[in-house]
Amino acid sequence: MSTENEDNEGTAQPAAPSVPPVPAAAPDGPPAGTSASEPAAPTAPPVPGAAPVGPPGPVPQSAPPAVPADAAPAAPSHPGSGYGEPPHGSAGHGQGPAAGSGAFAAAHAGQPQPAAPAAASHQGAGASHQGAGWPPAPPALPSYGAYGAPGGGDGSAWGAPVQPGGGPRPKRPGGLVAAVLVAALVAGGVGGGIGYWAAERNDNDINSTTVSAGNTPVDLKREPGTVASVASKALPSVVTIEAKASRGEADPGGGGNGQEEGGTGTGFVYDQEGHILTNNHVVASAAAGGTLSVTFSNGKEYDAEVVGRAQGYDVAVLKLKSAPAGLAPLALGDSQKVAVGDSTIAIGAPFGLSNTVTTGIISAKNRPVASGDAASGKNSYMSALQTDASINPGNSGGPLLDSRGAVIGINSAIQSTGGGFGQSQAGSIGLGFAIPINQAKNVAEQLIKSGKPVYPVIGATVDMAGKGTGAKIATQGAGGTAAVVASGPAAKAGLKAGDVITRFNDKPIDSGPTLISEIWNHKPGDKVTVTYERAGKENKADLILGQREGDS
Questions:
Q1: 319, β-bridge pairs
Q2: Where is the composition biased (Gly residues) (predicted)?
Q3: Of the listed 28, 93, 122, 314, which one is catalytic?
Q4: N or C: which terminus of the chain carries fewer CB neighbours within 10 A?
Q5: 335 annotated active-site
Q6: So what's the pLDDT on residue 186?
Q7: Catalytic position from the list 281, 285, 388, 402
Q8: 455 strand-pairing partners
Q9: Is residue 396 annotated as a catalytic residue, yes or no?
Q10: Residue 532's pLDDT is what?
Q11: Average pLDDT for the chain
Q12: Is the pTM here over 0.70, yes or no?
């Protein structure tokens, strides 16, 4: 279908023949794609001297088909002779029947054929005198039959003009798609408007069923034993301690900028008289002329003073100078009954952040720990509870609670990435250590009673460097004294210098610090059994623990 000239739509326009046309005549009948009633194209006027064109006669099937108009070379006006010869008008050179018309009609039987244009004069002369003139006649072209006939083809003669496609084009569904899209957009807009109107109306509706935050129950209660419940009860009894050293103690040489040095730690209420239990290393800097202040979780601050300190145990007791009424001491548990895997809650002021609560479990029991005190350069020994609750500098002295809220230990030391135990500024790596509350309670009672610690002893000096085979009794004591004190517990039990203690009661001993930690878990006067090796032979002995008063 042509879109350039709609007036020609449905009417086939035959191609104009070349001059002279080859072959002499086109097949009979109207052109393909046109009705038989349409008039044929006008024929060209005859050339003077040409033979009259008669009706086409039968032609053998082998005759070549018509040569396309665009493929035949243009011939001179007088093809029958050489250049400049006049036209021949004899009957021997007259126009014969149109070659190929019968073959075309046979190939297109039953189909309307286009009308043949008038033949040019002397067309047959060129065929009668091949080789007599120049240029020679074009070679014969093969015939192409109908579609499916031998030789293939689409049913039209080779070179026949291409006919415009018949029939109207199918309509595309573009209009329908556009209509659907428009409808969808309109529906979406209408739906959105209705939704907005409904939401706004519901917001203003006094009968709305939406529950606001104001309807939350005021008396929200948490189940007993939850971390929140335990922490809410314990926090009012936990305090943040700030220790400041005097100027002279902080700078004995008299130099410096005149500012006081100190640190921050944690403690908790021990009794209603105002005693606060904490670590020795928290208050050591203010012990000689410094100042101590205690702040409760409600923000109230009180001055305090040191009642007694036990450097070896790393325990100290303070007392509020003006204790408020209604103090609530924390309940003390039984550290001996603690099991690995029990839940733990640590409360303290890590890096000065007061009232911080962290949780974990008991990772191990009876962990021998020797923690260093940077201020005094002396070590403390404990058979500690190990926990993975986060403990950092500032947590020291704070309570380690069980799931009931009872104190089972005093947070004291952490294992740092530097490889040592102590109270340095290293952060938690999940290895925290607490003094068992049973031991801390014994020490606290001693300090409250006399202001001095009392240590159980075996009356022998042990090597603190060796590890792995047991605790070896040294060859001599401090200052060249005897390693085994005469008439002391060890001497009475038959122990001698060089003996290696491998067990203390039922606890294995692998080093001197481990032995000291186990001894300090007992009280003076307790009867214990020791297992030792001498000259490769294992022996056992019973002894009664002695005592030493104060730190030396």
A1: 275, 305
A2: 251-266
A3: 314
A4: C
A5: no
A6: 64
A7: 281
A8: 548
A9: yes
A10: 96
A11: 73
A12: no
